[in-house]
Amino acid sequence: MQLRYAFRLYPDAVQQAALARAFGCARVVFNDAVRAREDARKAGQPFPTAGQLSTRLITEAKRKPERAWLGGVSAVVLQQSLRDAEAAYKNFFASLKGTRKGRRIGPPRFKSRKDTRQSIRFTANARWSITDGGRLSLPKIGAVKVKWSRTLPTTPSSVTVIKDAAGRFFASFVIDTDPTADAARMPETDRTIGIDLGLTHFAVLSDGTKVDSPRFLRRAEKKLKKTQKDLARKQKGSKNRAKARRRVARAHARVADARREFHHQLSTRLISENQGIAVEDLSVAGLARTRLAKSVHDAGWAQFISMLAYKAQRYGRTLVKIGRFEPTSQVCSTCGVKDGPKPLNVREWTCTACNTVHDRDTNAALNIKTAAGLAVSACGAPVRPGAIPAQREETGSHGFPTGNRAA
What we know:
Radius of gyration: 25 Å
Low-confidence stretches: 376-407
Number of strands: 14
Mean pLDDT: 88
Helix content: 25-40%
Order of helices and strands: EHHHEEEEEEHEEEHHEHHHEEEH
Strand order of the largest sheet: 2-6-7-1-5-4-3
Largest sheet: 7 strands, antiparallel
């Protein structure tokens, strides 16, 4: 499978200017491609092909005085920008037809130089390289200093340079992992676990372990409030407002980085210790519309489950998601009697059938494990049918932590 390994970049002033030109040229080519297709649609003409757009918007445009500056960046960057536009339209049409999973997406929009995220991509034919001194050599940009936090397992197929809202630069390498090496890294085990995600405790495991919720956003609210207030007092369009905006972005980035690092460490530990993992398919979007919205977003359940999914697929583990309507908090995990719904303030309850005293969350984790088919009866047979393997998930490329973790 393919993964992304992200590392922090530290370009100097000249290299930052070169990267800014590359970001701008890629943005212009993307916008020109969207405009060309929109003009063809309004005129009732067929959409121009990728080859026609490449000739018109890159090759011929470089010969014109108003677009001559496109020659100042690598041609691969411009070609990849056209591919991004093509992919955006393919995803849009697939969403219209219903063949694309997830919520419906709209047509591609024009990019702005004020967007919080800028990126360019270099493929293998761009002749980028890693120097003997450990720097990332990019065409028409130079050798950029990299903070290497780990060794790349194989030769990357491409690298994406990203600038986030906080003004930080990252290099994201696409790596094809070795299944044999992954299997040796995490040998098989006979342990299985059920996980009940919550807000008081981030996760309660079926073995009774409780993982406290770090609540990164709640702990940083005071500082975030101060930086946001400073931003609101700055004059629009001024340099001081731009500096204040970066301070706000850096404060939010620290919260997101800490949360992501916590999710990585916990998901890696659970994957390494257990052969089978069961979680509940929570409706995060629905819960985010309640009065608990801020706490739900602060927990980041969706990101954590996605990490479990791709790591399970990578290391040969089994991840099972049970339905969100499964009455895990209403059923006694000892005798199986359904005791009915209970308000959230009830954290312990006694089964009326077998008189077993249950911790609400631990009991739910045990029921999640049973519903997924990972529990084993006294005779050694599974309680439910065997679990299905997790679907393939790739790591994303939007935003990277300072710790530069990729797995």
